[in-house]
Amino acid sequence: MSSKYHITSFCNIKNNTVSLNGSVIYNDENNDFLEFIKAAYKSLETNYAKFFKMDALSKLAFLAADVLLKNESLNQEEENNIAIVFSNKASSIDTDRKHQESIQNKEDYFPSPAVFVYTLPNICIGEISIKHKLFSENSFFIFDTFNPQHLLDYTNSLLSANKAEKVLCGWVELDGENYEAFLYLVTNNGTITHNKQNILKLYNT
Amino acid sequence: MTEVYLSYNNIISSLGFNSETVVGNIHNEVSGLQLIDDKNLLPQPFYSSIINTKTLKESFQALKDKDDYTRLEQMMITSLNKVIQSSGIPLAENVGLIISTTKGNIDVLDKNSEFPKERAYLSVLGKKIKDFFKFKNDAIVVSNACVSGVLAVSIAKRYINQGIYDHVFIVSGDIVTEFILSGFNSFQALSDAPCKPYCKNRSGINIGEVAASILVTNNKKSLAKEAVTVLGEGSCNDANHISGPSRTGEGLFRSITSAVKEANIPYERIDYISAHGTATQYNDEMEAIAFNRLGLQDVPINSLKGYFGHTLGASGLLETIIGMHSLYNNMLYTSLGFDELGVTQPINVIKEVTPKKMNLFLKTASGFGGSNTAIIFKKVKN
């Protein structure tokens, strides 16, 4: 089935590298994810103080989305009906482990709302929606591995039912020191046809 | 577009192990909430609705499987099994499986859990459910905070409309754990009494547990007697705050607007609203504002949290199922715990069981991350 929708742009964050549409825009030698993402945030002139209170998954998803949406030069005065459809394997397990640590010992019991709120994967969608003023459709899915078919089907359903004008979708995985973000924007215009082969190709870029 | 129906359903809860029993208890204003004093869960006593472990074990063992299953898996499998059996639908290629949960098997992260830590991954939970029933397709796990249960219905409908599946089984569930209780307690959101949604004297939320399952299908033949069709749905973000709802109810307002637009009906046709009503100050106020902005302030409304507490990723589906029975029985059920209005905008909270001829109801939910969902359902006349 040929799709009438297109992939306008895409962003990958993995292996200490941030790339936009296949071109490297930041790279360093940091061994630690939090060091790397902070350095990338600074280098890419993100300038958003709330970034520092986010958990690791939100930092990853937020930066990928910010790189992509900044490049779109959206008119912030107008409303942008961009749906967000994210997926991963680990859900929010990285922060789940932190909250679990804080309650494991009754002698050392310190649950914190600032940690607990991030024990849901869709919080990163909330962070992106706040920054870019997106009052749009959003959902978070969990799969064992990257699932291009599901993203394709669900994105097409949102666009064809006019629930959104554009869809920001992809995979944002964070589990300990393993991290990987691949986000792409699907719209009516563009040169890359929105199909499973192309999604997979860009994912492996 | 294809008509999509919600049909056979089941609820596993402290108020019973099938929907009819649960609805019967709600009709009689019986609450599943009770005071629990268990230091392993929370330092102080708390109100919750907890599924009877012995009954669950007996129901589950009747299904005979050699593997070990977690408490949540037992709840989900027991619930879903009943729906698959009632539907008589063979689990072929055209049948999908959606799992709605916020935290899944989060209890296995505790160092005293006998289950391997990998069981905390939601995809592993999905695989356990898929393999038990031998679904042909992989489970689609939805984890979108407290709107997950309603959103799962929208997703099932969208999949059917895309022609990918003819039938989708949804199973939703979350359990009462120290993980969840300690978190909500750190927010100072837990009530030390049974919760009182929309009430002047409310003091916060209770957390509860259920598993709820339903068949979503495009086949109008052999539907359950309480079946409904989906007229429209929407799921919009507040773009305001990650843990507090919008003061103007923006995301909920937009979700309902989107659902009504798709349904193509005037607002006056909505007979009943099954709302979220967690009994926190911010949530209840936000809902009252959103409903007033839409002119829905006179429509009878209830929150079912006074019966089950907040059951997280299952609450939306649980409350949808009860709404279906409410429509079928032409009966408005009491918003338990309510006596005096405690929001600044007028809303028509149901104070006692009231017969009313009904055709349409609106289900809404809101959650962390600024998420909101709304669906309009219409009674199917068999």
Can you characterise this structure?
The complex is a heterodimer of chains A (205) and B (382). By secondary structure, chain A is of the alpha+beta class. Chain A has one domain (6-203): Peroxisomal Thiolase, Chain A, domain 1 (3-Layer(aba) Sandwich), CATH 3.40.47. Chain A contains seven helices and eight strands. In chain A, strands 1, 2, 3, 4, 5, 6, 7 and 8 form an eight-stranded mixed β-sheet that branches. In chain A, helix 2 (56-71) packs parallel to helix 5 (123-132). The radius of gyration of chain A is 17 Å and the shape is globular. Chain A starts with 5 loop residues before the first strand and ends with a helix. The model of chain A has no long low-confidence stretch (mean pLDDT 95). Chain B is α/β, with parallel strands linked by helices and 382 residues long. Chain B folds into two domains: 5-217, 3-Layer(aba) Sandwich (Peroxisomal Thiolase, Chain A, domain 1); 229-379, Thiolase/Chalcone synthase (Peroxisomal Thiolase, Chain A, domain 1, 3-Layer(aba) Sandwich). Chain B is built from ten helices and 16 strands. In chain B, the strands form three sheets. Chain B has an eleven-stranded mixed β-sheet, sandwiched between helices. Chain B has a three-stranded mixed β-sheet with strand order 2-3-7, with no helix packed on it. In chain B, strands 12-14 form a two-stranded antiparallel ribbon. In chain B, helix 2 (53-61) crosses helix 3. Chain B is globular, with a radius of gyration of 19 Å. Chain B starts with a strand and ends with a strand. The relative contact order of chain B is 0.19. Classes of the chains: A alpha+beta (205), B alpha/beta (382). Chains A and B meet through helix 3, helix 5, strand 5 and helix 6 of A and helix 4, strand 5, helix 5, helix 6 and helix 7 of B.
CATH class of chain A: Alpha Beta
Which fold name fills CATH's third level, the topology of chain A? Peroxisomal Thiolase, Chain A, domain 1
CATH homologous superfamily heading of the largest domain in chain B: Thiolase/Chalcone synthase
Q: Given the structure, what is the number of helices of chain B?
A: 10
**Biggest pleated sheet of chain B:** 11 strands, mixed
State the separation between the terminal residues of chain A, measured CA to CA.
24 Å
Going by CATH, the homologous superfamily of chain A would be Thiolase/Chalcone synthase
Write the H/E string of chain A, N to C. Answer: EEEHHEHHHEHEEEH
Could you tell me how far the N terminus lies from the C terminus of chain B, measured between alpha carbons in angstroms? Answer: 20 Å
**pLDDT < 50 stretches of chain A:** none
Radius of gyration of chain A (Å): 17 Å
What is the rounded Rg of chain B?
19 Å
Q: How many separate structural domains of chain B?
A: 2
Basic shape of chain A: globular
**CATH architecture annotation of the largest domain in chain B:** 3-Layer(aba) Sandwich
Mean pLDDT of chain A: 95
In total, the number of domains of chain A comes to 1
Structural class by SSE content of chain A: alpha+beta
Major sheet: arrangement of strands of chain B: 5-4-6-8-1-9-16-15-10-11-13
Shape of chain B: globular
